[in-house]
Amino acid sequence: MGLNEADTRAKLIDPALHERGWTEELICREQTAGTVEIAGGRPRRRGRGRVDYTLRVKIAADAQPVALALIEAKAEDLAPGHGLEQAKAYAAGKRLNVPFVFASNGHLFVECDRLTGRTSLPQPLAAFPTPADLRRRYEAHHGFTLDAAAARPLVTRYPGGEGTRRYYQDAAIRAVLEKIAACEATGEPRRALLSLATGAGKTFIAVNLLRRIADARQLRRALFLCDRDELRTQGLAALHTAFGNDAAAATGGNPQKNARVVVATYQTLGVDSDAGDASFLTTHYPEDWFSHIVIDECHRSAWGKWSQVLMRNPGAVQIGLTATPRQIEVTEASREALDDEEVSADNLRHFGEPVYEYDMAQAIEDGYLAACEVDCRDIFLDRKEENERRTGVAADDLGDKRITDATTGRSVRSEVVRDHYNARQFEEQLLLPDRVAAMAQDLFAHLVATGGPEQKTIVFCARDRHADEVAAALNNLYAEWCAAHDQPRVEPYAFKCTAASGGNDFLPELRGSTRHHFIATTVDLLTTGVDVPCVRNIVFFRYLRSPIAFYQMLGRGTRIDAATGKLMFRVYDYTDATRLMGEELRSRYAPPRGHGEGPGPEAEPILRVEGFEVHVTDAGQYVVADVDGKAARVPVEEYRARLAARLVAEAPTLDAFRRRWVVAAERHALLDGLVAAGVSPALLAALDDQGAYDLYDLLAELGYGLAPRTRRERAAAFTYKHRGWLATLPPEAAATLQAVCRQFAEGGTDGLENPRLFQTPEVVRAGGLAALKGLGRPVEVLGEAKSRIFAA
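^ that's the sequence the OP posted. Answer follows.
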């Protein structure tokens, strides 16, 4: 029987890649958070997903590596192309944004060149392309070289280390910077469009794009343009972290012309609607004032107005961000759907096709967004025609039902209503109190059955009056339930959160309060830009014809929430809104009815490492850490990002980290400094059960993107990586150093510094300390061997 997949990588592929120039610092292992699975009504994380090898090139020791290829490794006795389709799936749709895809069984490899679409015949690994080979092919395709000035942002490092970003965020950033560099080479307008699901971190991408461009000394003045105050606040907070006081928000009284990065809303600039005169824009910012412009939520607002920002800065790098898929299935020729198509067409016409796309289905599959369960409900009080669910209601369907005018609240006699109301007109102009009561009762029953009534929920209503009626009905049901179950009421329970009611004032309560403000009834206020991770239910009580609006509303529930352990959300659809949803996402997860999703207290073991607490629940792992002076549960991914940023601040490059690591006193000072800063490196091994890895590899991956090796793999690699150096030593000395290296396989870095190292039987048999003394400089030779264990 041949080697299994892990041994094939370590014993066959790794040595062959090293021979071809692919040193450790050029190989990265991309990971995902891990798909959420539903078991027994509870969401649990599956193991983290991984790509075996991502191959990257560097133009200098302190440069950011640029990913060019991926390799999928399979067991030795499988065909060399066995993993090719899997590897192509990773690269499909630019998921990893690499042009070259390989599969190997350790002896032969097969390549798919995604630039030409051609797949090679099997070839020996001895003929695998070198870094220079792939770099040359990459540069020829893109039309620029990585050492060109235009590519400087592409090779500028992440300021907080590689552990601060996710694989698709890196792919998106590279895609934009590649497009900009290619446009520089051809003289075309420097424009790029990104399409990423709500909650995937578009702000992180925008901030890191601007920061890396600034660090490459190519940013003069930037504008971050967004749709509303909430987004401006969120964007400014993120940009402050990267730029400090060089980032500022423009207001009606202050254009912030001295700021390096200006954050503004469409409304402030006067370009939010046809009624806007753009006077703030034209008065304060001359043409070509900005060198870089980022349009957040570029599917919002009328193109004809906010496009003035782009037209007045034709020489600027222009980047559009959208959460709406590029291709939306339009099921009916409604005005709203046609408007959506027009906005999308305008974006594509100006920016071009998206350089990178990461949709909601992929984000859920990767475990970065909450799993989604769709429950389609149908309440129309004896509706005659099934298709009226989409098309509306005819007068004879209303019969003797109670009808009120949606504006005045006055009763309307059925004989005076119009012959036909389409779905939107019906919801906006007429109200059926019995239908409102029935829908509210049905929804409330589902909340009780799936964890209790006190779940954070957003109900999208047709208009302000409708939101009032729904909130009142839900409050009454809640009061009855509390009385029946002898439970104290919380106030408010359901509340209207619309622009007309000053709904922005309630957002902090919806977001942060755990004992009130549970159900928000809204119209449009909560469609975009509101980050409320704790929301567990999205409810459609209004008819929708806009795919863009639908995806924005759905996005209010997609965020994972560490504080409450939320890994899934439910959609209750009473108006067939989910017909606008892609089939690949619909009903992906369906937990059994009647089960709550929250784990009980008994399901939360606590681990303690170096004084830090790790809480383990069905929903995942959380670290109790200091956040703004208070103890808070921090998601593991966020904790890793904190640790990465602190590590890179202490040791800016991989070489600097390696130099500090091999000197015991320097290593202890580094680790002590990290713990003193509130992050524990020892937690890494405990969090992911990575006891087979030395802490060196875990930290090197986190901060610098190094593909980690187990202690045994690193010890084995010492022999083939440094075969030439070992050959220069006397046989007994070489054998002793190899025996010493095998102690690293057992005890890691600490094992190399064990005072009894040379009393170990294996080391003694190889020649022991005497063999090194024969060289006349045993301490230096031992130190050299130690450094080489960690060398690339």
